[in-house]
Amino acid sequence: MIVEIGHYALTLALALALVQAIVPLWGTLRGDEGLASVGQSCALGQFVAIALSFGALVQAHLASDFSVLNVAENSHSAVPTIYKISGVWGNHEGSMLLWVLILAFFGALVAGLGRGLPLILRANVLAVQGFISAAFLAFILLTSNPFARLSPAPFEGRDLNPVLQDLGLAIHPPLLYLGYVGFSIVFSFAAAALIEGRIDAAWARFVRPFALVAWCFLTLGIAMGSYWAYYTLGWGGFWFWDPVENASLMPWLAGTAFVHSVAVMEKRDALKVWTIFLAILAFSFSLLGTFLVRSGVLTSVHAFASDPSRGVFILAILALFIGGALALFAWRAPMLKRGGLFAPISREGALVLNNLLLTTTCAGVLIGTLYPLALEQLTGEKITVGAPFFNMTCGVLLLMLCVVVPFGQSLAWKRGDLLGVAQRLSVAAAIGLCIFIALFATLRGGPVLAPIAAGLAIYIILGSLSEIAARVWRRGASLGVLFSRARGLPLSAWGSALAHIGVGVTLLGLAATAFGAETIASMRVGEPQNVGPYQVTFQSVASRPGPNYSEVVAKADIRSGGTIVASVEPAKRFFSARQTSTTQAGIATLWFGQLYISIGDQTGDGAVAARLYWKPLVTFIWLGACLMAFGGALSLADRRLRIGAPAPARSGSPAIAAR
Amino acid sequence: MTRKGRRLTLIGAALAIIAFAAALALYALSDSIVFFYGPTEVLQKNPTPGTRLRIGGLVKAGSLVKTEDQKAAFTITDNANNVAVTYQGLLPDLFREGQGVVAEGVLEAPGRFHADTVLAKHDERYMPREVVDALKKQGRWQEGEAKP
Q1: Distance, in angstroms, between A361 CA and closest chain B CA?
Q2: Which residues contact A261 (CB under 8 A, 6 or more apart)?
Q3: Phi and psi for A308 in degrees, rounded to 5?
Q4: What residues of chain B lie within 8 A of the CB of A381, using their CB?
Q5: Tens of pLDDT along A105-154?
Q6: Are B123 and A580 a contacting pair at CB < 8 A?
Q7: Contact B28 A393 (CB under 8 A)
Q8: In the prediction, which pLDDT does A646 show?
Q9: What stretch of H or E contains A121?
C-alpha cells in the first residue's frame, strides 16, 4: 500500500510540475499576478509529493519488501540498516528519484525563501524549474519506475552490490547530486533572465548564493567520490580520468568559472552575457554527465546496467534543454545591454583570464571524453584517451591558472597596479621557486610536473595569505587594532582566500604523489617488508565472519625505526549472496601521509599477496577540497550576499532594461 | 584604452589561450591514444610489437597460472583466437576464468601481451561494452542471450 502511495505521489508531482511549468509563464505574459505566483505553491507541493514518494521507497527498502522489483534486485534482508537506506540510491531508479527530490528541494527553496525576488523573475525561474522537473519525472515514470512490483515475490533479495556496501555510498551521491542539481537553479535563473530580457547586478546577487551552495556541494561530492575510490578499489588511485569522473569535473570547472564571473557581474555590472552563457554551460554539463552515466554509451566503473530506451529518453531531454537554452541565448543575448568597462590589467581582467583558462580546460576534458565516442561512430575504431592526455592538457592549463590566482586576488577592481602586486607577491613567488628548485634537484630525472606543482602550491598558499595580511597589516598598529581589522574584513574576502589556499593544499597533495613508494610483495607472517620510511609486518592472517560476508583479515604492524606507530587490518571480504569479493584496504594516517595496505589471495604456502604504498601528504588532496568548500561556505555567510539583504547604495541605474 | 581596444585585447587573449590549448590537445592526442582490439583483431591488424593496446575478451577457462612473485599468466579469448597475457601484480577482485576482462599493456610479440592494468567487470549484470562488441563481431554473442 505504501509503495502504491509513493507511486501515486510521484505522478501527482509530475502533474504539479506541469502546472508549475506552464501557468506562471502564462501569467507573466498576460501580466496576471495571481497566475504568475501559482508557481510557489506548486513548487512546495511538488517537493512534499516527491519527498513522500522517496520516503515510501526508503520504507520499502527498510522493510525488505521483496515484492518491489527495485528492492529485490538491490537489497538483502541481512544487509545492515545503513546500507538498506543508502541502497535506495545505489541503483538507477532510486538515484533518479533522489535526483528529482533534490531538484524539487531547490525549487521549494526559491519558492520559500525568494521573497526578496522580483515577482516576474521568481515566476519565470519556477517555470523553468518546473519544466526540468516535469521532464525528469516523466523519465522516471515512463522508463525507470522504482515502484514496479514483482510477482511472485522472491524470498530473498539479490543483495546490494558489495562494492557499494560502504559508507561512501551514503555520502557521495547525495553530495554530488546537491551540486549537480544545484546548478539547475542557476540555469533556471539564466533562462528566466533571457525570457524576461533583462539582467542586472541584482540578478547576480540573487543567483550567487545558489551557485555557491551548488559549487560547495559539488566540490565536496567530487572529493568524497575520489576518496571513496581511493580506499575501496585497493590500489590507491584517487582519480582515473574515467568518463564519469570527467562528467562531474566539467560542471565543476564551468561552475567555478561561473562563481567568479558572477562576482564580476555583481560588483562591476560587467560580463553579463558571458555569465549567462556559463550558467547554461554548467547545468548542460550536469545533464551530459547524467546522460553518460545512465545511457551505457561509455564503459566505466560507474555505468549502470542499462537499457537503450533510457539513453534515448535522456538524450532527448539533453537536446531539449541545452538546445532550447542555447537558442534562447542566441535570440535574446544580443538584446542585453553591456556595461561595466575595465582595463585589461584589473581584477576583472584577471577573472576573465581565469574564466578563459577554466573553460578551455573544460573543453579539453570534453574532447578527451567524447572523442573516443565520436571516432567509434565515424570509423568503428575503438580507442581510449588515457591519463597522459588529460595530464598534458588540463594539467598545463590549470597550472597556468595557478600562476594567475594570487594576482587576481590582489589586483584592484577596474584598474590594477600590476607592478605593485608583483612586488607584494615577490616573497611568495621566491619561496615557491626555491621549493621547486630544491625538489627538482632531489627528484633528478623524475617527472618535472611534480616540483612545478609543489612550487606553485606554496606560492598560491603564501600569496593568498599575503593578500589577507596586506589588508589587515598597518605599520605600528597594536595587536588589538590588527585583530579588529581582521574581524572587519568581509567574510567573502576570508572565504576567497581560504578557497584559494585550498587549491594550493590540493595541488601540494597531488604533487606529493610523485614522492611516494610502492611495493607488491608476498607477505609471510612475521617477515618485515620496507615501504618508504616504514616497515610493515603481518602479525597474523585469519578468517572472520561478518554480518553478510566472511573475510580474511591480516593484522599488520607499521614500525618506524623499531617502534610501532600504527596497526591496520587490511581484509578481503567475500559476499556469498553475489559470489563476489571486495578489498578492504588497511590505511594508517601518519601525519598527513598515509600508509596503504591491501591484500590479495593467499598462496599455497601460507604467504599472502599484498600491495603496500607509502603516500606522503596524500590527505592534502581532500583536505584542500574541504578548505575550498569551507571558503565557499564562508562567502555564503557574508551578510551582504544574503537574499533580501538591503542592496548597498549604488550609483547609476540599478536595472538595465533590454527593450 | 578605447572600448574597441579593450575588446581586441580580450579577444586576442582568448584566441591565444584557445590556440595554445588546441595545440596542446592535438599533441597529447597523437601521443596518448590507445586502441582497443579483440583477440581476432590483434591477429588481423598485427600491430608492431611495442604498441600500447587494450585487449578485451573472455578469460579462457583453465588458462590462469599464478606464480610466486605475484606474476600471473592467462589467455584472453573470443572463442576463435587467443592472446597470451602476462601480468605482474594483484588481479582485481572480480577477475574470474570464463568471464569478461579488459587488459591494458604492451604487445610483446604477435599473440603475446604484457599487461600493466587488468580490469574486470564490476557486477554480474554488467559487461565491458568493448568485450560485448568484440564478441559480437565474432558472432559469439547473440542479442538477448544470457550473458556468459
Answers
A1: 8
A2: A271, A274, A275, A278, A351, A355
A3: -60, -30
A4: 35
A5: 999 999 988 778 888 899 999 999 999 999 999 999 998 899 999 888 88
A6: yes
A7: yes
A8: 45
A9: helix A119-143
pLDDT, one tens digit per residue, over A166-212 is: 888 889 999 999 999 999 999 999 999 999 888 888 888 889 999 99
Report the distance separating Cα A264 and Cα A270, nearest Å.
6
Which CATH superfamily is B35-137 part of?
Answer: Nucleic acid-binding proteins (2.40.50.140)
* C-alpha cell at position B129: 561494452
Please indicate whether, in this complex, the C-beta atoms of B10 and A397 are within 8 angstroms of each other.
Answer: no
Bridge partners (DSSP) of residue A512 are none
Q: Name beta bridge partners: B74.
A: B85
Location of C-alpha cell 545505489: A90
Q: Residue B85: is its pLDDT beyond 50?
A: yes
Of the CA atoms within 13 Å of residue A605, those in its CB half-sphere come to 6
Burial of residue A295 (CB within 10 Å: 0-12, 13-18, 19+) is: buried
Q: Round to whole Å and give the CA distance between A448 and A436.
A: 10
Question: Is A129:A106 a contact under the CB 8 Å cutoff?
Answer: yes
DSSP state of B126: B
Chain B residues with CB-CB distance to A234 below 8 A: 90, 93
Report CA dihedral (A34, A35, A41, A45) to the nearest 10 degrees: 150
pLDDT, position B146? 39
Query: How close does chain B come to A299, measured CA to CA in Å?
Result: 6
pLDDT digits (tens, 9 = 90+) for A455-511: 999 999 999 999 888 888 888 888 888 888 888 888 888 999 999 999 999 999 999
Tell whether A240 lies on the interface with B, counting CB pairs under 8 A: no
Distance of CA B102 to the CA centre of its chain: 6
Q: What is the pLDDT of residue A649?
A: 41
DSSP codes, A533-585: TEEEEEEEEEEEE-SS-EEEEEEEEEEETTEEEEEE--EEEEETTTTEEEEE-
Taking contacts as CB-CB distances below 8 angstroms, the residues of chain A near B21 are 360-361, 363-364, 393, 397
Per-residue pLDDT reduced to its tens digit, A625-640: 999 999 999 998 876 6
Task: List the single residue in B with minimal CA-CA distance to A599.
Answer: B90
CB atoms within 10 A of CB A475: 4
Among positive and negative, which fits the CA dihedral A316, A319, A325, A327? negative
Indicate the pairing of strand B33-37 with strand B52-59: parallel
DSSP 8-state code for residue A414: S
Tell me the C-alpha distance between A195 and A183, whole Å: 18
- Give the A window 292-351 contacts with B, CB below 8 Å: 296, 298-299, 301, 303, 305, 341-344
pLDDT score of A266 more than 60: yes
DSSP code string of A330-398? HHHGGGSPP-----SSSHHHHHHHHHHHHHHHHHHHHHHHHHHHHHHHHH---EEE-HHHHIIIIIHHH
Q: What is the domain partition of chain B in residue ranges?
A: 1-33, 35-137
Phi first, then psi, for residue A385 (nearest 5°) are -105, 115
CA–CA gap between residue A225 and residue A222 (Å, rounded): 5
Q: For A233-307, where are the alpha helices, taking DSSP H only?
A: 243-268, 272-295
Interface contact flag, B34 A386, Cβ < 8 Å: yes
Per-residue pLDDT at A442 exceeds 90: no
Q: In this structure, what C-alpha cell is assigned to residue A477?
A: 598598529
Amino acid code (one letter) for A598? S
Q: Quick check: A623 pLDDT over 90?
A: yes
